[in-house]
Amino acid sequence: MTPPLSASKQSKLLLSLRLRLRTQSPILLLRHLSTEPNPPQDQDSLITQALQLLQSPENESNSTQLHNLLFSSSSPSSPALFRNITRRLSSSSQALKFFHYLQSNSPSQDLPSCSLPYTFQAIFEVASREPDSPNKLLELYRTAKEHNVPLTINAATLLVRCLGRAGMVDQALVMVKELDPSLKNTNFCNVVVDVLFRSERADDALKVLDEMLQPDVECPPNDTTGDIVFGALLKREWPGKSVNEEEIVGLVSKLGEHDVFPDTFRLTQMITKLCRNRRTGRAWDILHNVMKSGGVVQANSCNALLTGLGRDGDFERMNKLTAEMKEMDIQPNVVTFGILINHMCKSRRVDAALEVFEKMKEGSDGISVEPDVIMYNTLIDGLCKVGRQEEGLSLMEQMRSQKGCAPNTVTYNCLIDGFCKTGEIERAHELFDQMNKERVLPNVITVNTLVDGMCRHGRINSAVEFLNDMQSEGLKSNAVTYTTLINAFCNVNNINKAMELFDQMLNSGCSPDAIVYYTLISGLCQAGRMDDASSVVSKLKEVGFCLDTVCYNVLIGGFCKKKKLDKAYEMIKEMEQAGVKPDSVTYNILISYFSKSGNFTTAHRMMRKMIKEGLTPTVVTYGALIHAYCLIGKIDEAMKIFRDMGSASKVPPNTVIYNTLIDSLCKNNEVELALSLLDDMKLKGVKPNITTYNAVFKGLREKNLLEKAFELMDRMVEQACNPDYITMEVLTEWLSAVGETGKLKNFVQGYAVVETELALQEAGCFSVVLECVPPPVAAAATSALRIPTIGIGAGPFLVDRLDD
């Protein structure tokens, strides 16, 4: 601690100060004395006496005493004295009155030139504590200008802060412009920048900041400047101004040149915000600017960038950043490794994640980090998602051996989900039982996972029983549970059970979400129970949900199937009133309905309206018209639409449309045209299926075009298009009648996938060819060709006896 000055030294210092006050300019003195210390203790009594005289009724005696007290040779005048007297006055009006007294009564040679500015500074301080202070301060500022009293930097700072808080930013800026530039310091500029940012005047704030960033400026930025600017940059937006990523990177770089950096918290926030806005490249630039400029970078900031890079799948940069962290001795933590492992698992790079995990545990890179439960769970989930549940189980055993890493509910949920997805429901149940034995509490996700797994694999009743058991044990279900079950029962057309579950859901106090309602409405519409569907729609609206386009389409389609066109139109009208715009599916439903009803005029009108609404007809649109024309035998009209698809609309036909046309042409004995369409399919890359070939085979049989049939049979084998019952019935009947059973036998043998030799004890030693063929083919072929079969495995095998 610095020792106190002696009385003689204090006297000499005060005398020297007075000489400087008299010889130097007021502006320079204001700069030197802007942080003048409080008056010494011996002035306290003088201040108290002055205040008593100032606050007493005015008379000549008091005036004389005050004058002698303030301006006598035994009472040295100083800026601090007058300032502190002013500060203790009860109001700004009294303070201003005292200022006028000093101005009028003090002998010029006894009043330091900086006393009046400091006195006025004190007046500002008093006024700032009074009601309606911003307006009083403005009025006082005008008074100071009228009396040619320059502002101290502290007074100017106080004015800017108070006016800014009151929203009088324009008035504050006027004062800032009028202030002597030589007075401005970093603290003052910081206050101006802060006020402007808080007032959402980002452009003006950035202009002041730009002045601070100029070379050799007298008010360079400091850490406080950085806190203000970096805090402002983290705001979402400013009205009328959007600071883009380039500007943010530029500001961080420029402030870094003055050794001003964001702290770890703000740097992490900034990087996180940019990464969330998909501006990972800019986040990368900011972090590396700080690194290169010598700022402090910790693992948290790197973790934020690693998270963004992982979300973008940029594993190359993730590896580069982790290498840079090692070079710069930035110690990664468990979160760092967790991020790397998590994103590797999400991208199904589980082996790479396991490699990182092992290196982390072993400390092979000089950094040993103990894995936590979250990291183990991430790896187990990653393994289960790629079907490696057994490895996930082994990893759970590792968890048990590590202190503080006991498997929890999430661990078991991941494993149960993995086994459910592969159909190993019993293994999933075993894990559930083990979970209960270890007193790891299951949650609603556990229940939902098992219910979903059982429903997906056809064990719906078991899922219901399991749910009932869980509910009896106090484990509540949620909307997801009921949605899964309702959807499962709808898929097997057990609508009554679905409705029962819906009612149970309502009675259990579980609020259905919109998906539950949509699922039930869809199932009821598919079952043709439109009255029940309408009832569910009413309940949906009662609880505040709205129908979406898909749900409206389901209802419109359901009413059209029941031939309730008025209800369908009612739905369309309601749809438009709700502001839900019909899409191409809506129009396709109506076009299909009118086409099937034979009302082609309305169907084509709907199609024109669809185009007018800016919707492009799809292959479904054309398919509905083509199918309807073919049904009533108007093949020419169907072919016309088919040609329009390729020429005018540029909508490529699919296999279904080709099949519809080919089948109709063959039935009308126009096999040649059907064959040309088959060639057209090959030309356009549309793959024919068994329905296509069956239609053509029927047509060829009518005209007995054997060679073309043989050609198509070879093409089917090449394309691995498996025949079905219809194929074999058509070919067997036709080829047997014309004595071409050998061709049929070769055709069946073309589907061989297994060849082996077998010794049959009862038949002697001879070669046997086993071909595993589709059961329908086997049944038809063995019957027609009298080929013996034996049952092996899941399906019959054809046995072809060949001589030695």
UniProtKB/TrEMBL annotation:
Keywords: Repeat, Transferase. Its EC number is 2.1.2.11. Gene3D superfamilies: Phosphoenolpyruvate-binding domains, Tetratricopeptide repeat domain. One of its GO terms (biological process) is pantothenate biosynthetic process. One of its GO terms (molecular function) is 3-methyl-2-oxobutanoate hydroxymethyltransferase activity. PPR repeats lie at residues 298-332, 333-363, 372-402, 408-442, 443-477, 478-512, 513-547, 548-582, 583-617, 618-652, 654-688, 689-723. The keyword Repeat applies. It holds the Pfam family Pantoate_transf. Pathway: Cofactor biosynthesis; (R)-pantothenate biosynthesis; (R)-pantoate from 3-methyl-2-oxobutanoate: step 1/2. It is an enzyme of class 2 (transferase). Belongs to the PPR family. P subfamily. Belongs to the PanB family. This is 3-methyl-2-oxobutanoate hydroxymethyltransferase. The lineage of its organism: Eukaryota, Viridiplantae, Streptophyta, Embryophyta, Tracheophyta.
